[in-house]
Write a structure and sequence with these properties.
It contains 27 helices and 22 strands. By secondary structure, the chain is an alpha/beta fold. The strands form 6 sheets. An 8-stranded parallel beta sheet has the order 1-12-11-10-9-8-6-2. It is globular, with a radius of gyration of 27 Å. The chain starts with a strand and ends with a helix. The structure holds glutamine and zinc ion. Glutamine binds at residues 433-435, 486, 492, 553, 601, 603, 643, 645, 728-729, 731. Its cofactor is Zn(2+).
Length: 756
Amino acid sequence: MAIAANLGFPRIGAHRELKAAIEAYWKGETDAAALAATAADLRARHWTTQRAAGITVIPSNDFSLYDQMLDMTATLGAVPARFGPIGGEVSLTTYFAMARGAKGVPAMEMTKWFDTNYHFIVPEVSAGQSFRLASLKAVREFEEAKALGIHTRPVIIGPVTWLALAKSRTPGLAPLELLPAVLPVYRELLDRLAAAGADRVQVDEPILATDLGEFHRAAFWTAYDELANAAPKLMVATYFGALGPNLDVATKLPVDGLHVDLVRAPEQLEPVLAALAPGARLSLGVVDGRNVWRASLEAALAPVARAVAVLGTDRVEVAPSCSLLHVPFDTGLEKELDAEVHSWLAFAHQKLEEVAALTAAANGDRAAVALAFERSAVVAMARASSRRIHNAGVKARVAGVGADDLARRSPYATRAVVQDARLGLPILPTTTIGSFPQTAEVRRARADARKGRITAADYDAFLERETEACVRFQEAAGLDMLVHGEFERNDMVECFGEQLSGFAFTRHGWVQSYGSRCVKPPLIFGDVARPEPMTVRWSRFAQSLTDRPMKGMLTGPVTILQWSFVRDDQPRSVTCRQIALAIRDEVVDLEAAGLPAIQIDEPALREGLPLRRADWEAYLGWAVDAFRLSAAGVRDETQIHTHMCYSEFNDIMPAIARMDADVISIETSRSDMELLAAFSDFAYPNEIGPGVWDIHSPRVPDEEEIVGLLRKALAVIPAERLWVNPDCGLKTRGWAEAEAATRNMVAAARQLRATF
Ligand code: GLN
Ligand code: ZN
């Protein structure tokens, strides 16, 4: 019989109960026992939910109080020395200190989990490090489920992925060299799980979906030759992409089974079937664990039926493509969502029902699930032809985009001259990235307006006062190019999505981003159009208050795409182009409203990069084109800015240059201006504002420190092309810090100007 399996379930709770419990614990409002009770209650509910949905292989240890990578780090006893010696098990205090830092002890680094918006805590390793089993969480959670009568398949992060993602603290040491040291701990953990009654364990090795060198591939042999001798049968889980050249390694591992992602890489079914070791089980990831749309069951059944034909039902498992951690909990909670859009959606709960229906069909019990298949077919047809999705005008406009639409009228050198004449800025002009502090008062006013506690007119008047005060502050501080402050915005994507057609918003569609932090991405379900101007009202108002140049402030098409759940019935590049056209209209309207500069933020451009290098060029092609399309509607004298808040530019420099923004502001202060080397090595031709003030920290840099950073910048960027600005927006800062740092920044720019 084919088996219905799940790889992981959202842990935060349908109503973010875990978030509330963890944050209350952090604040000292509750104790560890209360947190443990909430966590256990959620686990019990989630296991029961999965069983009720018809799932046979139910995961355990997919739960986490912060992050599954950090859990593995604790399990291996890999606690960096700065957190103090650990005796027995890693304590809850140490665990959270590793994640968030403690008094005087910096947290471990955090970075994105492959190409998701989930962030994991990066393991740190050093030469000669010893490992030991220092957390029995996996065993305890298995036993906890067992006590509830649910036999689970524990999930752990595999040794190669754990090490491949680790950061070396010893120069010259490749983390993977520590493989022989971690394997005995893995072995011991597997033995302990077996002793507790676990007969199967899921070992996540998503690193197999990335480009690996020989060293990594060889590590897989070493690791699994050793672990295959352990008592539990191992299911090695890969996801987020094709195995590609790693197919041979993955299919020949001496393990019981392999999970492959057939949503991201349906084409790998045949090669996997051909290469799979004799007798090995195959878990088919056929329900999309990364997106929110209902599956077409008929289409999803095809690869399952094919695998059954080749392997027989006994060697087949049906599963989501990856852990369901990356989708919201349950569409049943959405009571306010448009009914038609609602009918197209499947969140974690619904996806498990899809897995169960597919499994039944694979086992020849099609009659039992006829209704589910029929419903899926009806929905697929309705969605394909819905008037809510298809807008002929938008499609025609996208089809009509030509090369001319992607290019500014003149090259940068020409534009720079006319912009200079119009703006009359001093050398080393100062500006900010857009937002000013979102104080409790601002957030309260927004909530009051939304709940109808204050009138729209009162809220509008409040925003006018905030905006005006912000403009006056910037004038007094001596900034050269001003911003309106973004007080009217809740979130840099949501505020646009709410005004664009083709977008929908959920009430409970939360997805864990890191730790207790969740995001609620908009759903892009249909063709995107902009019925009306979105930001002109506030930008025009702000410009009307001052003679200094004001910068209009927009979120770019790639970032809007990247931070949403995107429709899966057309290529992402097409959806991105539609968004670009909507932003382009806004850019042109801002220009007409008299804004001499417009910033189009693209902080998510880099995170959209595909997992494999071979796919980068295609992505960067359409992504940069989308930015260009959004920006190129204006005259030469209108200055286009862009902003990106990250610091790895080396490998994408040509794409950054091709965006052809007149000015780009980037985050650099934390790297001590080091990354500017990428811009100078590449001979980046346009203007650059390297951040001189780390807005992630409450620390206020003094004038001399900023002068020092600017001197470093001047060593690689000519003064005529250098701007002075913070690393990012100031929305998370308090006014006191923002004021002090802004004044120091302006003073630093003036001090240096005097030397020219
Ligand atoms: N304009 C935005 C702000 O200042 C940019 C934020 C971002 O890039 N993350 O808040
Ligand atoms: Zn930023």
